[in-house]
Amino acid sequence: MEIRHSTNPADAKHYDTARLRQQYLIESLFEADQIKMVYAHDDRLVIGGAQPVRQALTVEAADVLKTEYFLERREVGFIHVGGGEAVIEADGERHTLGKLDTLYVGKGTKSLVLSSVDASNPAKVYFTSALAHATYPTRKVSVSEANTLNLGALESSNERTIHQIIHENGVQSCQLMLGVTLFKPGSVWNTMPAHLHDRRMEAYLYFDMNADARVFHFMGEPNETRHLVVANEQAVISPSWSIHSGAGTSSYAFVWAMAGENYTFKDMDVVAMDALK
Question: Does residue 195 have a known ligand-binding role?
Answer without folding.
Answer: yes
